[in-house]
Each structure stands twice: as C-alpha cells, then as structure tokens.
Amino acid sequence: MRAMVLERQRTALKETQREDPRPAAGQVLVRVAACGVCRTDLHVVSGDLTDVKLPIIPGHEIVGRVVAAGEGTNRFAHGQRVGIPWLGWTCGTCEYCTSGHENLCNRARFTGYSIDGGYAEYAVADERFCFPIPNAYDDAGASPLMCAGLIGYRALRFAGDGERLGLYGFGAAAHIVAQIAVHQGRRVFAFTKPGDETGQAFSRELGAVWAGDSTQKPPEPLDAAIIFAPAGALVPAALAATRKAGVVVCAGIHMSPIPSFSYDLLWEERVVRSVANLTRADAEEFLALAPRVPARTTTTSMPLTQANEALAALRDGRVTGAVVLVPSSA
Ligand SMILES: [Zn+2]
Ligand SMILES: [Zn+2]
User: Fold this and answer.
1) Ligand at shortest distance from the CA of 99
2) Model confidence pLDDT, tens digit, residues 130-151
3) 209 vs 264: CA distance, rounded Å
4) Threshold 0.90, pTM exceeds
5) Which ligand sits nearest to residue 276's alpha carbon?
C-alpha cells in the first residue's frame, strides 16, 4: 500500500510503499476512504509531542470500510463503514480504565502516535475502538467528527451549561462545536487570530452571535470558554473574558507556555482545566447527536500524497473548517 510515513520528527513525511497490514486477533483491516488532518498531527511531526513511535504513519480521523477481520472479531460486517479515532487501545485494568476514565489509561495507545494511522491506503485497528459512521455524512465529511468533533464535544461538556460560550481558535473543532452549542441554545462568541476576517465570517455563518480578535474582550462576560488554539497566552485572555465561577477549558494536546498572570484573573472561583483524549462513551454519545443537530462539516479534500502540503496549510492557518486526505484509490 501507499503510505505517508514520518521517519524522524521535524522532517517531511515520505511517500512509501509498504506491505498491506494484516489484522491481528481482535483487529479489523480498513480500506481508508478519508483521513482528516488534525492539529495533533502537526505536533507529532514538529516534535512538540515526544514518545512518538517512529517510523509512524500519522492520522487519527479515519473513515473507511472493513475489508478483513482478525480472529475473534464480531462487531462489524465486511464492507461496513467505520471510523477509527485517536484512542486506539486501553489496558482495561488500571485505576482510570476501571473508573470510567479510559481516556487517561496509564498504558493507552493512540492512533497515528503509538499505532500506525490513516495517512495510508489501509489501516488496522482494534475493533472495540472503532465506531459505525452515521449515514448522514459522506466519507470526507465524516472524518473530522472522529477527533475535532468528539474531543471538541468532550470539551463542550466540561465547559458546563452556561449560555455564553467563547471559542478561541475557530478551526476544525470549533466549527463543529459551535453548531452543537447553538443547537443546545447557547450563544457562541468566536475569537480568531487578530485580523482573521475569513475565520470570523465563517463563525458567524455557523451561528456565532459575535466574532472578533482573540485580543478583544467580548461585549459581555462569558460563562465558559474553550481554547482550541495552541497559544498559552489565550489562558489569561480567556479568564479575563469570563465571569465569576466561569470555566476555561484547554482542549488541545499541546500549548505554548502559559504566561504568568495576576491571581485576580482566577479569583472568584474561576476554573481552568484541560481535556485529554476521549472515551468510547464520548464517541457513542457524540456520533448519535451530530446528525440530529445536524452538525455539518466544512472540508477541503487533498490527495494522500499531498499530506505535507495539507499540514503546511493547517500550520499557516489557510484552512477553513477541516482538511482531509483522500487516497487516490478510494
Ligand atoms: Zn488502563
Ligand atoms: Zn486530533
């Protein structure tokens, strides 16, 4: 099969011919139809994240069809469309796995990080961590649901029930979360890089009542804010925009250092927290909700072999919604 492989961090992915993977016991072999490009992939390639299995095939927003299955599998029919997300395997026995926090499993393995991912024509995955894809979505349109959507949804849950929700960084995750938040009756305030008028207009199209620069204060205090952009300076900015007892959720896997700030910003019971990974329960809940909203995805498809160009477009902020890699054979 053709795959885009990262051999060493801080180098470009290399187009490589590999033998097709074979499904081990409990695994399905999936012919990849689309794989979304997530900011986490950029952190894997650029070296922001360490402990990456190398060489690695990145990509954890995989949509494809089951073409073979290993011993002992029974969840999916041949040809069935499935999604493969970031959480690829958990131990099932540690204190986190046994208390409903498998996202924090001490021995968790992640797709496109510790297990080869979807920047390829085929991928294997543990069937217990795959999900049926709602029919309302086409292949490319469904792929951002697998991380931007469902980890965004987990972040939204942790933001609480407040009506006035700030979203810092209006990329793949925010464009889905905004629609769900509006569906829940919230008012969305979108913050982009200063001067990003395209991003601000996009957020208004998706129902934001206000859009502005991340350096601006919103017209009224926020009940909660979710930070999707990897910029630590947004933490004090979001706290300053948030009311007493408001919550600021950091949703990314990596962030630049958070500058020190006055205790006044945290005082009055404001909360700062992070969100890590996903549980399978998050995925089931989100994939049932998304088509009912309906949360539509805006995607730009690029050929698999242009993975480096796709990552560069994401890094440079040239993507509206999500960029998706499509193997030419799909
Ligand atoms: Zn565990
Ligand atoms: Zn992701």
Assistant:
1) 1
2) 999 999 999 999 999 999 999 9
3) 28
4) yes
5) 2
